[in-house]
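Design request, tokens follow.
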């Protein structure tokens, strides 16, 4: 039985993850199952703190690399704020801005 509950900021965020290639999505699902059982802080290489209460899930597969930005909320909740498939080495600034804006809304 999971000790942490996982939710998405909105249905669009869930749809972004659902649209990921199968290999990346499978790795993501493995990571979130572990997070639900043991908590959100798995550390590198699976999760990473981005600062200010924002974290990222680092999923990968043969098709590429996926990132899901998340935060934690009261009552042992993990909230997925935004998700992308990376096309470049660096995380796009716009993706971080979206996640940070949503983080502020969740924490308000």
């Amino acid at each position: 039985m999971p000790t942490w509950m996982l939710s998405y900021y909105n249905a669009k965020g869930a749809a972004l993850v659902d649209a990921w290639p199968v290999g990346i999505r499978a790795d993501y699902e493995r990571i979130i199952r572990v997070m639900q059982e043991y908590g959100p802080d798995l550390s590198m290489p699976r999760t990473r703190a981005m600062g200010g209460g924002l974290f990222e899930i680092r999923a990968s597969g043969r098709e590429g690399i996926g990132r899901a930005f998340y935060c934690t909320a009261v009552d042992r909740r993990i909230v997925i704020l935004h998700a992308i498939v990376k096309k470049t080495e660096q995380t796009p600034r716009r993706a971080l801005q979206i996640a940070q804006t949503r983080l502020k809304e969740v924490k308000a």
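Comment from the thread starter after seeing the answer: thanks! The domain at 5-107 is CATH 3.30.2310.20 (YaeB-like fold).
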